[in-house]
Design brief:
Blueprint lengths: L12 E7 L5 H12 L4 E3 L8 E8 L6 H5 L3 E9 L2 E2 L8 E2 L9 H9 L3 E5 L8 E2 L2 E2 H6 L9 E13 L3 E8 L5 H11 L4 E11 L2 E2 L4 E2 H8 L22 E4 L1 H8 L4 E2 L9 E5 L3 E8 L4 E7 L4
Parallel strand pairs: 1-14, 3-12, 15-17
Antiparallel strand pairs: 1-3, 2-3, 4-11, 4-12, 5-6, 7-10, 8-9, 10-11, 12-13, 16-19, 17-18, 18-19
């Protein structure tokens, strides 16, 4: 990818990529960044190579708000294969602990699924990017080393049975950040008495983008044949990632003060600990936080120039 860094474009916005099967999140980011010839880019939390689906990519000024997408709720569809665990928790690993699948019925499956609703403690898988003594867990796992992992509190607010036969469960999951679907599937398999691993995983939403229109790599490559500028139509505004945050609209004087790092008084300030700030009705200029005296001060400014 031999383009000069000095010739890359300073573009800003969010692109909702439909990550393909077998590609890492970073590979998908770098491929898309190359197609757009973008100077600055980042993604909002990794998807496993086995997983497909929504990977929001942030370009330019949008990288300043990527953490809000990283921390947001996620939505998935997954297929769990009953009767065996795997070394990685998914179809990429070696099958272990093969067991017969007991006679199940829909009522029993739904009963088990209901026990995973709400806040649960989940042990992260060894094949994950979490660190132990400075090393990624997956690096240790590839060396045959297993270390104790502390359970983490996550929330499952949606867990629906979409379909079922004797060995495959088709599930829809809505969960908080930090949830591992592989661990969830393994735990469901244990509760059913036979073990399980993930054979398909697709991310369908990252709040506030729930079942959005996505762009595939193939679509982007086709558009890029007309030049990287043709891909700008795929970018959505930076503030689209922040619609859950209350908005404050400023006049020219107030917006100028904020742009220079100064607090500004806001009449009838909305409740909240964080605000989207606008110059007038539509020009997003950044994020602000409240002060004790009905003023708002800038937290992170967005430059649209």
């Amino acid at each position: 990818m031999g383009r000069s860094k000095k010739n890359r474009r300073n573009i800003s916005g969010v692109l909702l990529l439909d990550k393909p099967l077998g590609m890492s999140s970073n590979q998908a980011l770098q491929k898309t960044r190359f197609l757009l010839n973008a100077a600055k880019a980042g993604h909002t939390g990794s998807l496993d190579p086995l997983a497909t689906g929504l990977l929001p990519l942030c370009f330019g000024e949008a990288t300043k708000v990527s953490s809000y997408l990283l921390d947001s709720d996620k939505f998935y569809t997954t297929v769990a294969h009953l009767g065996a665990r795997s070394t990685t928790g998914d179809a990429e690993g070696e099958l272990i602990d093969i067991r017969p699948v007991p006679e199940l019925n829909e009522a029993r499956i739904r009963e088990v699924l209901s026990t995973f609703m709400g806040e649960i403690d989940q042990v992260p898988p060894m094949y994950s990017a979490l660190k132990h003594d400075g090393k990624r867990l997956y690096e240790l796992a590839r060396q045959g080393v297993e270390v104790e992992r502390k359970a983490r509190r996550v929330q499952i607010f949606q867990l629906e049975l979409l379909g079922w036969d004797q060995e495959l469960l088709h599930l829809q999951v809505g969960c908080s950040k930090g949830t591992y679907i592989r661990s969830l599937v393994e735990d469901i398999g244990e509760a059913l008495g036979c073990g399980a691993h993930v054979v398909e995983l697709r991310r369908t939403g990252v709040k506030p983008y729930v079942q959005p229109e996505m762009w595939s790599i193939e679509q982007l490559e086709k558009l890029a044949e007309s030049g990287p500028e043709a891909l700008d139509q795929c970018l959505i505004p930076v503030d689209s990632a922040l619609v859950h945050i209350p908005a404050v609209h400023l006049d020219e004087e107030g917006a100028d003060k904020i742009a220079h790092g100064q607090p500004v008084a806001v009449e009838k300030r909305p409740a909240g600990s964080l605000y989207r700030l606008y110059r007038g009705e539509k020009a997003f200029i950044g994020l602000g936080i409240p002060l004790d005296d009905d003023q708002v001060t800038p937290k992170r400014l967005i430059f649209n120039g």
